[in-house]
Structures
1.
Amino acid sequence: MKLKRMYSYLKADIDLIEKELKAATESESRLLEEASQHLLQAGGKRIRPVFVLLAAKFGDYNIQVIKQVAVALELIHMASLVHDDVIDDSELRRGQPTIKAKWDNKIAMYAGDYIFARSLEYITKIENPTAHKILSSTIVEVCIGEIEQIKDKYRFDQHYRDYLRRIKRKTALLIAVSCQLGAIAAGASANIHKKLFEFGYYVGLSYQITDDILDFTSTEKELGKPAGDDLLQGNITLPALFAMRTPAVKCVIEQVHEKTTKEEMTHIIKLIKETGAIEKSHQISQRYLQKALLALQTLPDRREKKSLIDIANYIGKRKY
Amino acid sequence: MKLKRMYSYLKADIDLIEKELKAATESESRLLEEASQHLLQAGGKRIRPVFVLLAAKFGDYNIQVIKQVAVALELIHMASLVHDDVIDDSELRRGQPTIKAKWDNKIAMYAGDYIFARSLEYITKIENPTAHKILSSTIVEVCIGEIEQIKDKYRFDQHYRDYLRRIKRKTALLIAVSCQLGAIAAGASANIHKKLFEFGYYVGLSYQITDDILDFTSTEKELGKPAGDDLLQGNITLPALFAMRTPAVKCVIEQVHEKTTKEEMTHIIKLIKETGAIEKSHQISQRYLQKALLALQTLPDRREKKSLIDIANYIGKRKY
C-alpha cells in the first residue's frame, strides 16, 4: 500500500496544509520567498504534518487550529534541512539543487533562519503556552544534536550510544513532538499525548535508522544523491558502526575522507554489506518499530490508530 | 554621566541577568558552551535587558518573571550578531575574535541557531501567548531585514527609505519590543506598553544612526574594528548615502569593494566628512531622539521615566 493511501481520508486537510506552507513561505523579500519555495517545491513526505493531524484526531479535532501546529512542525524540519545542507556541503536534496548550491551558504543561513522564525510565528497562533514551551525546548535539543553531529564527523571511534543520541535529537524528538503537540493542541488527555510522544519517538528512531541503511543500499537515482554520501560526509551511521566491528573493514572505513572517490565508495559499500551490518541495523530498526507499536496499544481503537500502525510498518519496510 | 549610573538602582537585577545569561549559555555540548560564552564574555551594553527592566517598572515588577524576558531579548540580539558576523566576514567584535573567526562559519551558524533557540526557551517561561506571538513576529521581521541587507550590499543606488527600512528591522524593532514586552510581562496597560514600544522604536533608529556615524568618526581602538568597516563590507549607511549627494564623492564611494585598502578608506572617510554628511546624519538621529522623548510624555512621572530620558539623551551624544 502506498503511504498516502494510509490516511487518504485526510486528503483535504493535507492539501490545505500544503497551501498554508506555500503561504507561510511567501515574503516581502523576493529572495527569501524564492529560496524557501524552491525547497518547498522539491517536495518531501510531509510526514510530520501527517503525524500532527493523526494525533489530533485523538482529541477535539479542529483543522483551523491543528493546521498551525502542522505547518510549524514542517517548517522547523525544513529550516533544519537548509542548515544541514550548509554543514554537509550538500549539492542535492530530493534530486534538486539545495539552497546553498543554487544560491550560497550565506543565503542558506538566513533562509534557514527565516523559515525557522516563520515556524515560531505559526506555533504562536495557537494560544497554548505549553505547546510553545515544548517546541522551544525541542529546538534547543535539535541544535545541540546538530553541533554534536559536526563534532562527531569522521570520528571513527564513536559508540553506538553516540549515534543513538544524535538520531534522537536529529529526528526522533521532532517526530515525537509532532505527535505530542497534535494531541495537546486538540486537548487530548495526558495519557494519550504521552503515548503518542512515545510512539513518535520510536518511529523516529526506526525511521532514521532505515534512512541510514538506505544511504548504503539505494541507487543514486532513488536517493537523489550518490550512495554512501553519509559516510563520505563523515557522518558515521549505524551500518558503518556495525561494519567496523570487523577489523579489516574498520581499517578501510577509517580511511574515508572528503575526497574518497565514487569507485572507492562502491567498494567500501560492498565490504560493509558483506559484514552483515545492514541486516543488523535493520534488526535494530525493527526493534524500535515494535516499541512504537506497543506504545499505541492502550489508545482507543479508531481509524487513525490503524493509520499510525500502517505508517509505522511502512517505515520499517520502505525502500527509499 | 556614565550609562550605568542612569539606572544604578537596578544594579542587583542587572547582575542577576548577567548570571542568567551565563546559565542560559551553558550546554551539554562543550563546543556550544565555549562559543556562546566567548561571545557573552566579550561584553556589550546589555541595553535590551535594561529597557526590559525599566519598562517593566511601569507595571507590576517581578524580577523573577521579568528576567526571563530580559534574557530572551539579549539572547536574540546575541544570536543575530553571530550570524551577522558570518555574513559580514567579521573577524572582530568588541575587540575580540568573532565565533566565525575563532572557530569557523559552520560552528557560528549552529551556535547562532542554538542561542536563538535558547532565547525562545526563555520567553516561553513566561506563560503569556501574546508575548510569544510578538516576539516570533519580530524575529521574522529581523530575518527579512538581514536578508535584505545582503541584497543591498554594494548597491550604491539605494534610497534613504531602503536604509531606514533596514535599520528598522535590524535594530529599532528589537529595542521597541524590549520595551513593549517588559511592560506587557509586568501587566502594564495597553496605552503604556504602546508608548514604550514607540519610545524604543525611535530610540532604536536614533541609536543605529549614531552607530553608523561612529563607524566613520571613531578610531580603530574605540570601535574594536577598522573605521569605515561598514562601507568596506558594502553596508551603505546614512552618512554614505548623504555623502553620495555630492557627485564627485559618489563616484569615489561607488568604487569601494572588498579589497579597498585602509589608506584608500581613510581618504574616502575624509571626503565623506567634508560633505557635511556626518552633521546631516546627526540631525536625523536627533530628530528620532526627539520623537522618542515625545512618546514618553504621557507616561507617569517616576524614576524609571527619568532613566529612559537619560539613556535616550546619552544615545544621542555617545562617542562610541
Note: The longest strand of chain B covers residues 92-93.
2.
Amino acid sequence: MNLRCNCIKTRSKPIHPKLIQDIKILKSRPHCPNVEIIVSVKGNEVCLNPKALWVKMIVNSFFKKQMNFSEEKADV
Amino acid sequence: MNLRCNCIKTRSKPIHPKLIQDIKILKSRPHCPNVEIIVSVKGNEVCLNPKALWVKMIVNSFFKKQMNFSEEKADV
C-alpha cells in the first residue's frame, strides 16, 4: 500500500557520484513515513535507500562538494 | 539574463529549520553555472543562497538529521 511516498522502490546498484546532477532529501511526513532520497542521473530521477552505506557516502560527498564550492566567499 | 537556472533570486531572511520539508541541491551544469539550493516550506519552493552561512547551517543540520534517522540500521 503506497502511502503516497515518492519512492516505490530504491536502486540497489551503486551510481558513480559524477553522474549525479542533483539530490533531493525529503524528510518523513504525514503521508509518507520514509526519509526519501531522489537523485537525477542523465535527466532521470532515481530513488536511493537512505540506509545503504554507499548512498550515505555518495550523498555526503555530493553535499560537501557542492556546499564547499560555494565556500570561497561565505556571505555572513 | 536567466541561463535557465531554477533560481532567479534567493531568500535572504532565515527560515526555521523545522519548517523545511525537503531540500534539493543542484550542482552547476551547462545551462546554469550556479549551485542551487531549493527547499520546500509549507508546500512552496524557496531558493536559498548556498554561500550564506545560515543556509549552510540549515542544510547541514537537515542533512545530518535525515541521514542519521536512517543510521540505526545501516544496510552495508
Note: The CA atoms of residues 23 and 63 of chain A lie 8 Å apart.
